[in-house]
Write a structure and sequence with these properties.
about 210 residues; alpha/beta; Rossmann fold; seven-stranded mixed sheet; 7 strands; globular
């Protein structure tokens, strides 16, 4: 939590309380359903929560925004973003039901009422959203393929509607086809911890 409050200094008391509850909740659920690797659970806030919240460094969603999280797993990046943006609506999608069980239970426990959950493949989702977000769920080309149909035509935010995804390592081959329209951010420009050195945020407007 110290890292979270260091980089996000304008959190409300409710947001701080919701974020502070995540550690115990994920530890408890992870003992039953493994959604975070055993060695990684001790780095929940840095590797999962703060990583998810990095999207807010790229774009602050306006009230009324609709966001879909593709392949949310245990609720990342969707749940931390929903805490940050209580006036936006989030749909967390995953094809693995047991992972959504964890994400849904955690959201209910902290009173996160601006999230919904869908046990499905993104290909089957018919709703329209301002942005799709994702965290290493699938290759860029696959993300674009499954979510392009779901991106609304009317913009309401500072960036045109599209896809925002978190990636790591060498992604040059993966993004080559999208390079002309893609904006790439280095998370190390925002966060000092060494873990973020190879982490990137990619933004691709979609029409």
């Amino acid at each position: 939590m110290e890292e979270i409050r260091k980089y996000f200094t304008d959190l409300s008391e409710r947001q701080i309380q919701q974020l502070a509850q995540l550690d115990a909740l994920y530890r408890d659920w992870n003992a039953k359903i493994n959604v975070i690797s055993r060695k990684d659970i001790d780095h929940l806030y840095l590797h999962h929560v703060l990583h998810s919240m990095s999207i807010a460094k790229c774009l602050r969603f306006k009230a009324g925004s609709n966001i879909v999280d593709i392949g949310t797993g245990g609720g990342f990046p969707g749940s931390p973003l929903a805490i940050l943006f209580p006036d936006s609506q989030f749909l967390l999608v995953d094809s693995v039901g047991k992972k959504l069980t964890v994400a849904s239970a955690v959201a209910e426990a902290i009173g996160l009422d601006n999230v919904r959950f869908a046990h499905e493949r993104m290909e089957d989702e018919k709703g329209l959203f301002d942005f799709a977000v994702s965290r290493a769920a699938m290759p860029m080309a696959d993300l674009v393929k499954v979510c392009r149909k779901n991106i609304a035509k009317t913009d309401r935010n500072a960036l045109p509607n599209g896809l925002i995804c978190l990636k790591g390592g060498d992604i040059q081959a993966e993004v080559k086809a999208f390079r002309s329209n893609l904006t790439e951010y280095q998370l190390s420009d925002w966060f000092a911890d060494e873990w973020f050195q190879e982490k990137k945020l990619l933004y691709l407007p979609l029409r």
